[in-house]
Amino acid sequence: MQLRYGFRLYPNGPQRSALAKAFGCARVVFNDALRVREDARATGLPFVTLAELSRRLTASKKTPERAWLAEVSSVILQQALRDLDTAYRNFFDGLKGKRPKVGPPRFKSKRDTRQAIRFTANAGWRITPGGKLRLPKVGDVPVQWSRTLPSAPTTVTVIKDSADRYFASFVVETGPEEVLATTTPEVGIDLGLGHLAVLSDSRKIDSPRFLRRAEKRLKRAQQNLSRKVRGSNNRDKARMTVARAHARVADARREFHHQLSTQLIRENQAIAVEDLAVKGLARTRLAKSVHDAGWSQFTAMLEYKASRYGRTFVRIGRFEPTSQVCSACGIKDGPKPLRVRTWTCGACGSLLDRDINAAVNVAKAAGLAVTARGAQVRPVPVPAQRDETGTHPQPRPTTARQTGIALL
Predict the structure, then answer these.
(1) Start-end of H helices in 282-402
(2) Are 192 and 355 in contact (CB under 8 A)?
(3) Interior/surface letters 137-154, b for 16+ CB within 10 angstroms, e for the rest
(4) Backbone dihedral region of 288: left (phi > 0), alpha (psi from -120 to 50 degrees) or beta?
C-alpha cells in the first residue's frame, strides 16, 4: 500500500523565493486551465481534454505574457493540470453517486494560506548523501529527518502551511512485512465529547480538549490581530502569531490521535466504530467541541493503520440504536436524552453505563466476539424465571476497572 511520510523543511531565503515562484506558477496554470474549461462549458463547446490543456500550456510558455512559466520545473506545471483533472473527476463521480458529493473546482487565490507543488520521479529530484532534498531550480533544502523511509519514495510534495512552515511529503510503497502478529482481543469504540473514546472492555479515554485549553491564548492573539491596520507589516506578524497558535493545537491533537490509534491497533485484532455524521453535528451548538475532538481524523488513522498492519476495521451504520439497546438482553427501550448517563434495563434489571453499553453494542453490530463485561455498572439482584427456579446460583459478575490508556 502507499503511505505518506512528512518531514519539516528549512529553506533559506533564496530557496523560499524559488518556492514562492513555483507556487505562483502552479496556481496560474491551474487557474488558466480552469478558465479554459469553464469558457468551453459556457459556450457549449466540448469538454477540453487534459492533452489539449497540456498542449496549450506548452504553447503559452513561448508567449511574452507567460514566458516566466519556463523559470520553474515543467513537472509541477503538468501536475497542476492533473490536479485539476482529478478535481473534475471527483466532481463528476459525486454526481453519479460513485463517491460523496463534492463541489466543482474553484479558482485558487494567491492569498490562500496553504500552497503545494508536487515533483514526480521524472522531475530529477533526489535525496543527497548529506541528507538534503535536492529540488530542480530550487536547490538543496535541509530536511529534519525524524525517521527512516521504509522504501525509496516515488513522489514528493512540498507544502507551505498557514504558519509559514515548509514540509516535504514523500509517497512510499510498504510491503507485507508491516503485518503484526495475530492477537485475540476485539474491541468496539463509542466516540464522544466528554470521553474521546469509550471501549467495550470498559476503558475510557478522556478527551484532551486541546482547543479549549488554548482558547485564552488564541483569544489574545486574535484580539491583537483585529487591532492592526489592514495591509501593514504588523498585521502580517499578528496573523502569523494566530496561525502558529492554531498549528500548535492541531499538531498536539494529531500526535495524540497517532499514539492512541497505534496502541489500539497493536492491542486488538479487530476494531469497530460507528460512522458518525460529523458534518451534521458540526452545525449544532456542539460544533466547537466536535471539531476539537477530531473524530474523523482519529477513525481515518485507525482505518489505514488496520489495513497496514493486518488488522480488521469495521464501520457500522450511524442509525444503529447503540444507546437504546441493552447489551445484556438486547431489549430496545427507546432513545434517551444526553443527560442520562446510566440507566436500568426494564427487562433484565441491569444497571448500564450509557457509553460502555454503546461500545459493546457497536462491537456486536460489527459481528465482533466482544463480551459485555463492564457494561453493567454494578451487580443488581435479578428475579429468577419460573423455569429456572431451583437452579444453581451463578457467580456474581465482576466489574472491570475503568482505566485509561497510557500513551505510547
Answers:
(1) 287-293, 295-309, 354-365
(2) yes
(3) ebebbebeeeeeeeeebe
(4) alpha
pTM: 0.81
- The C-alpha atoms of residue 169 and residue 4 are separated, in whole angstroms, by 6
Burial bucket for residue 333 (CB in 10 Å: 0-12, 13-18, 19+): middle
> What does the DSSP 8-state code read for residue 169?
E
Cell of 189: 469504540
- Asked if residue 382 lies in contact with residue 349, where contact means CB atoms within 8 angstroms, the answer is yes
CA angle 165, 287, 240 (to 5 degrees): 20
Length in residues, the chain: 408
The per-residue pLDDT for range 272-328, each reduced to its tens digit, is 998 888 888 888 888 999 999 999 999 999 999 998 888 999 998 888 888 888 877
Residue 366 CB-half CA count within 13 A: 27
Strands 312-316 and 270-274: parallel
Mean local confidence (pLDDT), 52-79: 94
Each residue's pLDDT tens digit, 351-382: 788 888 888 888 888 777 554 444 444 333 43
For 120-160, the pLDDT digits (tens) are: 999 999 999 999 999 999 999 999 999 999 889 999 999 99
Q: Which residue's C-alpha cell is 521504509? A: 150
> What single letter denotes the amino acid at residue 258?
H
Looking at per-residue pLDDT, the higher value among 251 and 342 belongs to 251
pLDDT score at 369: 58
Whether the CB-CB separation of 118 and 169 falls below 8 Å is answered with no
Asked whether residue 177 carries a pLDDT value surpassing 70, the answer given is: no
Query: What cell does 198 get?
Result: 469509550
* Cβ atoms within 10 Å of 177's Cβ, excluding its own: 6
Q: Are 97 and 114 in contact (CB under 8 A)?
A: no
Residue of 190, 201, 292, 353 with catalytic role: 190
Task: Tell the residue number behind the cell numbers 462491537, with chain if given.
Answer: 363
Residue type, 20: A
Residue given cell 469495521 in the structure block:
314
Burial 211-222 (b: 16+ CB within 10 A, else e): beebeeebeebe
State the catalytic residue, choosing from 83, 186, 201, 274: 274
Q: Is 274 annotated as catalytic?
A: yes
Q: One-letter amino acid identity for 301?
A: M
Phi, psi of 313 (to 5 degrees): -125, 130
Radius of gyration of the chain (CA): 27
What are the residue ranges of helices labelled H in 140-214? 210-213
